[in-house]
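User: We ran a pulldown and think these components assemble together. Before we commit to crystallization trials, I'd like a predicted model of the whole complex to look at. Sequences follow.
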Amino acid sequence: MELKRVVKFEAERDPEFARWITQTVGGERIRHCLQCGLCSGSCPLSLYMDYTPRRLMHLSREGFKEEVLSSYTIWLCTCCYACMVECPKKINITHMMYALKTRAMKDGFYPKRFAIPVLAREFSRMIRGSGRITESRLVMRVFFKTAIWRMLGFGKLGMKLMRTGRMRLRREKVERRGDIVTLLNAVDGMRKELAR
Amino acid sequence: MPDPRTPDSPPAAKIGVYVCHCGTNIAGTVDVPALTEYAASLPDVVVSREYKYMCSDPGQELIRQDIQEHGLNRIVVASCSPLMHEPTFRAALTQAGINPFLLQMVNIREHVSWVHTSKQAATAKAKDLVRAAARRVRLHKPLEKRKVAINPNVLVVGGGIAGIHAALNLANSGKHVYLVERQPTIGGHMAFFDKTFPTLDCAACILTPKMTAVGSHRNITLWTYAEVAAVDGYVGNYKVKVRHKPRYVLDELCIGCQECVEACVYKEGRWADEFNQGLSKRKPIYLPFPQAVPQKVLIDPEACIEFKSHKCKKTCVEACGERNAIDFNQKEWVDEIEVGSIIVCTGFKTFDARRNAYYGYGRYKNVYTSLEIERLINASGPTGGEIVLRDGGKPKMVGIIHCVGSRDHNTNRWCSKVCCMYSLKLAHLIRERTGASVYNFYIDMRTPGKGYEEFYDRLLDEGVHFVRGRVAEVTDWPAHPSEEGKLIIRAEDTLAGFVRRIPVDMVVLSVGLEPQADARDVRRLFNISCSEEGWFLERHPKLAPVSTFTEGVFIAGACQGPKDIPDSVAQAGAAAAEAMALADAKFVELEPYTAHVIEEACSGCKTCLTICPYTAISFVEDKKTAHVNEVLCKGCGTCVATCPSGSIEQNLFEDQEIFEEVEGLLAYA
Amino acid sequence: MKYAYYPGCSLKGTGRAYEESLLAVFRALGIELEELKDWNCCGATTYMSYDELQSYALAARNLSMARQTGHDLMAPCAACYLVLNKTQYYVQDYPWIGQIVEYALETIHLPKDIGAKVRHPLDILLNDVGLEAIKAKVSHPLNGLKVAPYYGCQIVRPYALFDSQRNPTSMDRLLEACGAAIVYYPVKTQCCGGSQKGTLPEIGLDLIRHLLAEAQRNGAEVIATVCPLCQFNLEAFEEQASNAHQFHFPVLYFTQLLAVALGIPLQDAGFQRSFNSIEPILTKKEIAYA
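Assistant: Here's a predicted model for the assembly, 1155 residues in total across the polymer chains.
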């Protein structure tokens, strides 16, 4: 048996992370969490998670950044809002998951070629470039950057989609594409301003 | 010096100023010596002293001595809030031989030292306040408290365990009690229970003797199926109208033999039996439950054929025979009584479990509320004490879900205090009766009372499963063959750290306690307040839990907040004691800071009549002026401020007194 | 009645059948739809995880343009519907977000008023058109076709603007008015996994399998959806999800079923986009179709 000694010292906590989570949109009420477990009970994905949503909430507010950002939980969450509907303390759990996903992507806490961050990045690139998503192109780009061989398994489905005219390769785009870039840059600029 | 503005110049004032250190409470922030020195320099101030604790005996002795030695006739005490010690200092003045209302207190604790950090600013503010008080107090006039006789009768509203206990206490002391209960029988919620925690006493066994005592006590007038319709008057002198609903059965004649119920044309019950929480049916003529007090039947006019078609055979009348107790023509009637104090014990209602749709109450047959299970367990319940499912089968697995409608921002934020304990009790009883596996789903196990934690220990020994996790859903769709045909409870077992699905035959929802649906209307009847959630408001949560802000009206039991039987009984005893104290004092002294109308100035516009929240103002027809009933007046000042011609003045808050205070504040040192 | 119409990226791609049937149905009901000019992607859940503030700005651009048209904005795609509503709520509840979005709109010369009312087609059909009016136009009733109504997560959570959050019945009532028989479907609001099937295939498949299994257990013949991603997930991976049970449902958009009932030719309602033909079931149930 492989033994591991686990005791958490206060020095391992990241107070900045704990503070950050309470300042995210939706994280203002995280200290109210009773740890009742209703969120985990309602979550359709909690069955697969290493840390259930409830545990993650507590780990986040206590500042255990490593555990939280390397968990599967934040990637498994599909943001379906089931947890929030009945939360007795009205905590905006879904939004915190969004924030944790963003943070994990920003801080690089994910295995190489992990599909979800790749999808997010390609998605954003496509929007910046065209203003709209062309599904077929997006899917292909993601496959290229993660696991090309999976495309083979996708072949049959791909044929069906082509046959029924649902796989359009023509690039969907917005006319005033410059506007999209300006818009996004403006947000970045203003955000930096406010941070100061 | 006499003020030329006032018609009657006050006598030359000789003011004594006393500044309290209050330990370091005040002295820590306010420069007390400097303040005392400053006060000494104010006009008309003869004596200015400081002391560590003015409210103590030596402190008061200082004041008394100075009054005698220096002939002081006005006192200013700069210390804590008047709510704390105004009576104390007023008493000191009385003891020294001068009128107690020649005192002005300055709050330099709650208003200064407790809310400011800068010593300089705090001291400056204190100086302003003391200066203002010194100017004001010169105009204070001697006032007398008014004495009002107290009627020793007491009205107890609500016949649950709290009302019953309070009524018996008072009746045993010789006071006459009117106990008014809206239901056709007394007993309240306790009558529904089978056993009570933590001793597992049979509820009926401990309740019914008290109920019988109430029914037969010579000092208690028991009116059931009646409600308070109107309350007029003031402490010691309440006039109450009680409206009686017609039972269609004459109280004096019915002996509760129930032959009429037997004989009813309906052979079987057809209407939901309220006492059995709708789990059984009753006839239109019925006795609420076998141990009902009073033991009298009543007729439900919505169900009885005679009321709908007037064509019933009236076998009930026949069965009643010579007694002739049934009277279909009975109408509601009103009694008017005079009492000195009122104790409101109207109790609670349970959370409507339908509001939590995800628990499936009303949707799945075998989801019950705790009250329904109590009736099932009870030997005189719909199934004779058998815990069965809707189809009659015995449950092998039962899930009890805590905190339904409690600790939830979506429904009720508070913790209902009793549900953990009664959930444990139900777990024990269900296991005992059926041998089923019982699962309790809780968030925290709240067992704070005497013997409560030990009761929990007992349950732990009995093999009840405890899963810590708020239940996310009760569903009937199976995800595994073993779940077919069952109700599945899905919750995260937070202690284990994963989600569990537990298939059960029966789900029990431990519903929380809520204020009665009409609490906000009832409170208006008695002129008391409700808290934000709807519970009746006590005067002080710690030091005055059974009195209200209305003199002579007390509250007790679950209407004041969720609580168990021991606490309800304790509060009922406390309220009875307070009512007794009032009655035995024979007189009550009313504060003199009431308003009065200066008749020569009143134009008869009647504006003040409608805005008085205590309906203390009436219109005197022959003089065409308004008149303030000083006994009803609470000194809120609304009429004083509203009167367009300024012809209402309030003792202790006369216009000139207030102006002087304001001038004092604005005059910079 | 006229509405501004926001298709969203999926309705131009895998969700073409939704757009086709939607346009056909609204045309048949005499409602005018005008596609929002130069609309951009709303960002859906993916962009929200990438950069929340930029996501609000993207949605706000559409809302601002829609507001200018003066009409209510219909957003049939569940994710778009959610993101557009969420943007409006967050901009209001968090003034600093409002500040950023306002500034961003300014830089591209769009007015800051993003108060266009965002509506879902179910909302419009039930509340603006009315069930009675729709019933009157039904010429080819669905003859008790057993439909499992699958709402997915995004049109009722977190904002239940036109239907019950825990037990929505808008689609149920609409399809019943067309003559369908709605089967008991307790998982009608359980998440299908969204893009998880692509990124975490095993898990995504499990979720899809649950939904299909439950529909089958309750005797559904057809599954009706409101979201292009749900429809894609349930249809495309039916075969893969089949194990002991074989799943072979037609998975349609509710607008397609409505189109059949209104007598719109199958071609015009995007039926050629389905992987399996609907005709055998229609014939079996003796439902007349154009």
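The two ends of chain B are 19 Å apart (CA to CA). That may be worth checking against your pulldown data before setting up trials.

User: Thanks, that helps.
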